[in-house]
């Protein structure tokens, strides 16, 4: 990695003055953010980015990132801030184009850390094929923030004929999951709580836009896409079942969970179905489209393990029912609040 | 994970379920004691696989559920003091007291921290010598040894800023309360395997004999539970009332001598209030005389805090096996995991919450 361009001897930490709008602010923006993100739209350094649009539809989304710790196995807050917004656009069936990035920095944050985050965001943007074209920086008093918060917003374009929304699910739709679940949440938990497992569990943080474009090339008529982030697969499926006013039936044996992730969940009394993912998606497609979509997905690294995990049914509208591995049946409900580790 | 996979096999489960269908010729009511077993039964959908004449009722073995309301209120009263760092296992944080839960205290600025082991709380006390660190020591015989270990370690280190808010309960006295009720429905028990890994099985022989009831020490995986049910049904059908050990891979008849010695040093048996049931004689632990300095109730003088339960809640009847969660008029309406009226709706191991989450509500 290129080393931080602001000499540590001058400013090893972010000062309140770096947010004051004066020379130090200029220096921070130029040497850290512009140095990493630079592109034709950003380099104009105007109050906003100006770009041309063709006719048609756009998708627009925003998300804020407050993850602690900021660096974790398999990712960091910067990569997450890019992939999260890219993936939200991809779940609308859009091709993500431009991102904004707002930084709320707590006074005292090591400059070198901010630099690492900026580098990571640039790498993530390159990987996803998007540009960060406008941004903002604020510095808050020590104690008024948790080191670094990032907000990103993004716009993307939607091709004609693509119509993706939770309410579009239809009875008979096959539900495809792109790969093993719960890795991001367990990776974060293991560092946050200082839990050491036998193998290091990495976050699955990854951009899904290229995967989605391949899927749409295989079948334009994909009904629903959803990335099961906070709340996990269980919450995503519940939201879709209730929007579409239809039932969902899934098979526990078809839901891939890596052994080490399952072991960690077991020890902590957590259900992997409710744990966050940052590089997985659920797709609802017509039965006849499922083989082509699956084949397109498996050609991508992010979805080698893609498989059908269930189907949409007309029975029990609004409910997600799971056939358990052992041969029983149960409801997979929404979680109320956060999942808390059990006593015993 | 390999060690649990063999107890989650669909083939083994189906074979056991078939055998239960063949064996059960009459209706039977069996209680599983432990919340972990209730959780596994609903999570894996086991009731679906059993004959409809076999009724499983869910026992009082959820430590979160049976912790008295006033103990929660005392925890809240302690946690909101500015000098205190209040530490607890995760699932106690959301249990509602009369007005607040511990998460609400945290949101108002209280220093409430989730820990994974009571020894983590001791470490926090060492790192924060100018703060009072309290650990919410809740649980059955299973969690008692680590809690005792924390007290012993704090004493060894001479920590004057560490204390335990104790709500430790014991299983066999609660089983006796259920069995001795004249109208009890329970005909057989799945005893809690993990409790027996600590305490052994000797406490169950007098119960099985006096009340003519089969007691099968049972594990927590679906195959364990189905096998425990089969062993209980066989005893009932054959008119036997014995203590059997399904969970022999973890439970020795004498239990864990080291853990029992530790318990005897740090705790003494006392009468104990159970939420939803009331006071049961000799059913809990309090800190022994030698460890009385580590008692948070004394240190913070919260004895006077008392509380009343919602009159709608039938938690007592549910915890003793007379009623199923769905028999309650408030179930799923006034009482939900978002707005629990009673404790069994709060913990993921509570039978009401387990039903709400996993069973068909239609």
Can you walk me through this structure?
- With 344 residues, chain A is α+β, with helices and mostly antiparallel strands.
- Helices cover 29% and strands 22% of the residues of chain A.
- Chain A contains 8 helices and 13 strands.
- Chain A has helices at residues 23-37, 77-90, 111-128, 183-192, 209-218, 232-244, 259-268, 290-298; strands spanning 57-65, 71-72, 75-76, 94-106, 131-140, 148-158, 174-177, 224-226, 247-251, 282-285, 307-313, 320-323, 329-331.
- The longest helix of chain A is centred in the middle third of the chain and has 18 residues, at 111-128.
- Chain B is of the alpha/beta class and 362 residues long.
- In chain B, 39% of the residues lie in helices and 19% in strands.
- Chain B contains 16 helices and 11 strands.
- Chain B has helices spanning 2-5, 10-23, 35-43, 63-66, 69-79, 102-107, 118-127, 144-157, 171-180, 193-199, 204-211, 222-238, 257-266, 296-299, 315-319, 351-358, and strands at residues 28-34, 54-61, 84-88, 111-114, 132-139, 162-169, 188-192, 215-218, 243-245, 267-274, 278-287.
- In chain B, α12 links the parallel β8 (215-218) and β9 (243-245).
- In chain B, α3 (35-43) runs parallel beside α16 (351-358), α7 (118-127) packs parallel to α8 (144-157) and α8 (144-157) packs across α13.
- Chain B starts with a helix and ends with a helix.
- At the A-B interface, α7, β12 and β13 of A face α2, α3 and α16 of B.
Descriptive key words:
heterodimer, A: alpha+beta, 60s Ribosomal Protein L30, Chain: A, Phosphoribosyl-aminoimidazole Synthetase, Chain A, domain 2, seven-stranded mixed sheet, four-stranded mixed sheet, 8 helices, globular, B: 362 residues, alpha/beta, 2 domains, 16 helices
| Secondary-structure element order of chain B, N to C | HHEHEHHEHEHEHEHEHHEHEHEEHHH
* CATH architecture term of the largest domain in chain A: Alpha-Beta Complex
**Silhouette of chain B:** globular
Using DSSP, what is the number of strands of chain B? 11
| The CATH homologous superfamily of the largest domain in chain A | PurM-like C-terminal domain
Strands of the widest sheet of chain B, in order across it, are 4-3-5-6-11-10
Q: Specify which chain pair forms the largest interface.
A: A-B, 32 and 49 residues
Helix tally of chain B equals 16
Q: Tell me about the biggest sheet of chain A?
A: 7 strands, mixed
Unreliable spans of chain A are none
Give the averaged pLDDT of chain B, no decimals: 91
Range of strand content of chain A: 15-25%
Could you tell me the mean pLDDT of chain A?
A: 92
